[in-house]
Write a structure and sequence with these properties.
- The protein has twelve helices and twelve strands.
- It has helices at 5-14, 16-48, 73-79, 125-128, 151-156, 194-201, 219-228, 239-283, 285-293, 298-325, 351-377, 381-387, and strands at 55-60, 95-106, 113-121, 133-137, 146-150, 165-168, 171-180, 189-193, 208-212, 234-238, 331-336, 341-346.
- It folds into two domains: 5-48 and 246-387, no CATH class; 55-212, no CATH class.
């Protein structure tokens, strides 16, 4: 016969204070573990959703981002003649030549400087990004010193508001529109006319060329044609894959940081669970002896105490995940190491993160309870009853 689950649960309830303190320590570890993984997941989700599967980004070979890329006008003109590009109204190909540069602005809350992405687009840039919607004002007119700002930028920087004037590249730029990109990375950018921005920044080359495929299956032939043309020295990537790569370094750093902090904090939580369980064994010597006298075997006593430790881990997981789940309502902003620009995104809790947090908490409880449980199971019946 086995010792009922209710036995383990009641023993934890009878020691409410020590149980609560141990659970609180585990909850803190789970909260930190889940929050940092949610941060990394939110970053990757934001950038992955920025791209479209049908769009292709062309940059210079060897460049890791648009900021570091350069495409001459002649090469951009050659790309427009590629077969496999979807047509746009008016008989043109659905393609845009774009410029991407960084400027430094000061945040409203902290006053600290931060890099913001300026994207110069063409007439078809908005058609290529249907997720970008104008929510205030209007798009900038070509050939003018007008810009529109993403909602994430407008929220953080006081100078980037509708009808305000922003100075960069030795010129005054008027914010004529605010757009929302549906929680994608475009919300952290400022957009303007590519040719005007190139003239202002004295940049003779574009940063990238974006185009829509006629069919998703046309990607490999188009990519092979670009790779095989010695005049271009360019590489093509699906837009989704390009933005996934932009998040990899930062997400990896956050995960390593999360695991490191969790291991450090978990040592204290495991020690707390171990102390709680050793105390339970010491205070229940006669109880353990009685259980053994009633015919319960060593492994059943071991299982009962391990179950108590697992209950501690489970309660700690729930107590840590509940406040962590509310982090999803927060929007944070940080510098993306890949592009060196500011990026706004939300914490994202996934089933995998929740299950991983619960599993880690159960592991902490198991590690903290295995030695006290082993000690309880090894007690001799006569000795346990005599010490009582």
């Amino acid at each position: 016969m086995a010792i009922p689950f209710s036995y383990s649960y009641r023993n934890l309830w009878n020691r409410r204070l020590t149980t609560a303190l141990t659970v609180a320590g585990m909850a803190l570890v789970v909260f930190v573990f889940a929050a940092i993984l949610m941060l990394a997941e939110g970053l990757q989700k934001t950038l992955a959703s920025t791209g479209s599967w049908d769009n292709v980004v062309v940059i210079r070979k060897g460049s890791t981002s648009e900021v570091m890329s350069g495409i001459e006008r002649e090469k951009a003109a050659l790309l427009e003649t590629l077969p496999g590009i979807a047509p746009a109204p008016g008989g043109r190909n659905l393609l845009a030549r774009e410029l991407v540069v960084l400027i430094c602005l000061r945040k409203e809350e902290t006053g600290s400087p931060s890099n913001v992405t300026i994207r110069g687009g063409g007439a078809l840039s908005l058609d290529l990004r249907p997720q970008v919607k104008i929510v205030e004002g209007r798009p900038p007119r070509p050939g003018t010193y007008e810009i529109m700002a993403g909602s994430g930028v407008a929220r953080q920087f006081p100078t980037v508001r509708l009808n305000r004037t922003l100075r960069f590249a030795q010129r005054e730029w008027r914010v004529v529109g605010i757009f929302d990109a549906g929680g994608t990375g475009f919300s952290s950018e400022i957009w303007g006319d590519a040719d005007t921005l190139m003239q202002a920044f004295r940049r003779p080359v574009y940063s990238s060329v974006i185009f829509r495929l006629r069919s998703p299956g046309d990607f490999e032939p188009v990519r092979a044609r670009i790779d095989g043309d010695p005049r271009l020295s360019l590489e093509a990537k699906r837009e989704v894959r390009y933005y996934e790569e932009q998040s990899e370094i930062m997400a990896k750093f956050l995960r390593i940081l999360g695991y490191s902090l969790t291991v450090i904090f978990s040592i204290g939580a495991v020690m707390g669970a171990m102390i709680t369980m050793y105390s339970a064994v010491a205070n229940r010597t006669s109880e353990i002896g009685t259980l053994r006298a009633l015919g319960f075997r060593r492994r059943e006593v071991l299982a009962a105490f391990l179950l108590e430790a697992l209950f501690l881990g489970l309660f700690g997981a729930l107590a840590g995940l509940v406040p962590a789940s509310f982090m999803q309502f927060l929007t944070v902003s940080t510098m993306n190491f890949q592009s060196f620009s500011e990026l706004s995104f939300r914490f994202t809790l996934t089933p995998a993160i929740a299950l991983g947090s619960v599993g880690f908490a159960l592991l902490m409880g198991l590690v903290g309870g295995v030695f006290p449980a082993a000690r309880a199971s090894r007690m001799e019946i006569t000795r346990a009853l005599r010490e009582a």
